[in-house]
Amino acid sequence: MKKIDRLVFGSFIGPFLLTLVVVDFILLLVTLLKYFDQIMGKGLSVATFGELITYFSISSSPDAFPLAVLLSSIMTFGNLGEHSELTAVKSSGISLVRALLPIFLFVVLLTGFTYYSNTQLVPKTNLKTYSLLWDMRTKKPALDIKEGVFYTGIPGYSIKVNEKIGDEQLKDIIIYDHTNPNAQGNTKVILADSGRMYSFMNQRYLALELYRGVRYEEGVSEKYEEKVAGGQFVRDKFTSSRMYFDLSSFDMGDTDESLFRRSRLVQTREQLITGIDSMQRDIHQKEEQMFNFVANTFTYHYVKDVPVPDQITIPKAYYDSLRDARREVKETLRDSIDVVPNPEDKKLAVVENKQVLDVQEGKEPSGGLKVAAKGITAKTIAQQSNEPVVNKNTFEQNMRRFNDYYKGDGTRMSNALSYGVNKSRSARNVLNSRVIALDGVKRDQRKFVVTKNQQIARSLACLVMFLIGAPIGAIIKKGGLGLPVIVSVIFFLIYYVFNTTGEKWGKEGVMDPAIAVWISNAALLPFGLFFLRQARNDARLFEPDFYVNALDKVKKLFKKKKELKTT
After folding, report:
1. Helices assigned H by DSSP within 298-409
2. Do the domain assignments include residue 205?
3. Rounded Cα–Cα distance for residues 280 and 275 (Å)
4. Closest Cα to residue 326, out of 380, 255, 403, 274?
5. CA distances, 361 to each of 314, 382, 552, 561 (Å)
6. How many structural domains is the chain composed of?
């Protein structure tokens, strides 16, 4: 590494680490504020909060890295330009592109690390985060009985204390016992002059000692005779009584992480691809079921042997083979760990279905392999026709029978019409419900596709932000946290708006989800190339004199035209 490379890289790495910490901290605060009311006030330990903060810091890294690269690039080259170091580099015969090389290589390595983080580290961290968040949400607040307020944190009891001395001594106590699920109202009440409250067995149980009190209990049976008689009423005075409560519900549980594995945010890239293929197979299967339902429901169209269209059958067979290949791999690995399956053998079904598609399109099968995938051959699929088969003789006979049966009988005709209308309405309702279910699967698949492509798009955003930040810093020649921060915020807001819009369009099906997530990078990349070109030409885009001179040139141009017209 040459001295110029050490100078440029040394000027960059410090601001980068600093801005990365600051940006990650800001994103962390935004995330914590989102869940603040759900996790605070529950007596959680510092270690639990530290674990949650660590998970949140890793989860926010996909947005933190691009912004840190953008801000640190502007600051670095702004400082070099402000102290005339960039001018000295150019005067020595080194171009701006060559000066950018060490930081560019670092950003390339950072892009690779970001890709690994987005596809492997962040999903696994999200799984830990959601599991821990669920435990923190479901944990009950710490036992804290306040004076003059009913406390309902203990299941089945409402406790009110009018005066509290220290942490244990209580006075003027009222307890409503609602542990009986069949009782309605306050049928069991305990009043006590004073009491004492303490925990034991490592705070697993709570003991409440009551002194000089009365216990009232009203028992009303469901029998009519006892209701008329007024039921039973029990009053029991006591000098000392003791109650025990189980505090296990106040502990934070250990939620099974498998409950959150279906979420797209906790799945790695390989799992997302598998999920997309599985949902595509589910889509074709639902389409096939809808087609068969229509063919079997309307039984009076005199059409029989209606085949499922090829545009449904062939793709479904393809994804069936993918599912079976994955299942065979899992079974082989489960039976024998020492035997490594041949990946080419497991891809045979996929190749066979590709040949089926070639034969269906009139092409020669590729690869010289025999086409036979799960009993579905090219011959059987090619023989299928979308045209229904109609038996003309049966149709004419049924029409004659129809005329003979309904002719002159209005009651039969009315009943037949009512039956047909009811059956059509029932079929329409069933089809509507299946269409809604199909749309739900398609929407989930689009979300998976968006997440899969976002893992790459957010990684390459580091390169795009570097191409924008470094030339802008060389142009404005201002370091520090003033103008660079303003410019960084503007471009990051543009990136965030386009990224959010593309994600929404992809999920809603407005655009292809595989393309929609690239809108932000595609919109900012031309800016980066433009600024790079201007920086190589030493343009002064951010100086007022540049625009004043440009305006003067425009005025002179119009003035010359006016003079020519006058002459």
Report:
1. 310-335, 343-346, 348-360, 378-383, 392-406
2. yes
3. 9
4. 274
5. 11, 9, 65, 65
6. 2
Residue finishing a domain among 423, 450, 484? 423
User: What 3 state SS string does 213-250 have?
Assistant: EEEEEEECCCCHHHHHHCCEEEEEEEEEEEEEEECHHH
Cβ burial, residue 561 (10 Å; 0-12/13-18/19+): exposed
- Give the end-to-end CA distance of the chain in Å, rounded to a whole number: 65
Query: CA 70, CA 22: separation in Å to the nearest integer?
Result: 13
Per the structure block, which two tokens stand in for 313? 């059958």
DSSP H or E segment with residue 448: helix 410-476
Do 209 and 351 have their domain in common?
no
Per residue in 213-253, pLDDT tens?
A: 999 888 766 565 665 666 677 888 999 998 888 766 565 55
Task: Tell me which amino acid residue 74 is.
Answer: I
Name which of 342-356, 399-413, 510-524 the model is least confident about: 342-356
Interval 102-119 mean pLDDT: 91
Domain of residue 409, residue span: 268-423
Count how many Cα atoms sit within 13 Å of the Cα of residue 206 in the half-sphere of its side chain.
18
> How high is the pLDDT of residue 278?
83
Q: What percentage of the chain reaches a pLDDT higher than 90? A: 9
Q: Are residues 280 and 416 in the same domain?
A: yes
Tell me: do 342 and 373 sit in the same domain.
yes
* Segment holding 438, helix H or strand E: helix 410-476
Are 300 and 405 contained in the same domain? yes
Cβ pair 465, 70 in contact under 8 A: yes
Residues 285 and 403 in one domain: yes
How much is the pLDDT for 109?
Answer: 93
Instruction: Please report whether residue 506 resides in a domain.
Output: no
**CB of 345 closer than 8 Å to CB of 323:** no
Q: What proportion of the chain, given as a percentage, has pLDDT over 70?
A: 74
> Do 216 and 283 sit in the same domain of this protein?
no
Please report whether residue 108 resides in a domain: no
Tell me what the mean pLDDT of segment 91-116 comes to.
87
Is 342 domain-assigned?
yes
Are residue 236 and residue 274 in the same domain, yes or no? no
- Average pLDDT of the chain is 76
- Whether residues 162 and 217 share a domain: the answer is yes
Whats the size of the chain, residue-wise?
Answer: 567
Q: How far, in Å, CA of 402 to CA of 394, rounded?
A: 12
526 class by beta-carbon count within 10 Å (0-12 exposed, 13-18 middle, 19+ buried):
exposed
Flag whether pLDDT at 366 surpasses 70: no
Contacts (Cβ under 8 Å, ≥6 apart) of 271: 123
Instruction: Name residues whose C-beta falls within 8 Å of residue 52's C-beta, 6 or more positions apart in sequence.
Output: 39, 129, 132, 133, 136
Q: Is there a contact between 465 and 69 (Cβ–Cβ < 8 Å)?
A: yes
Structure tokens at 181: 């699920």
Domain end residue (candidates: 250, 285, 314): 250
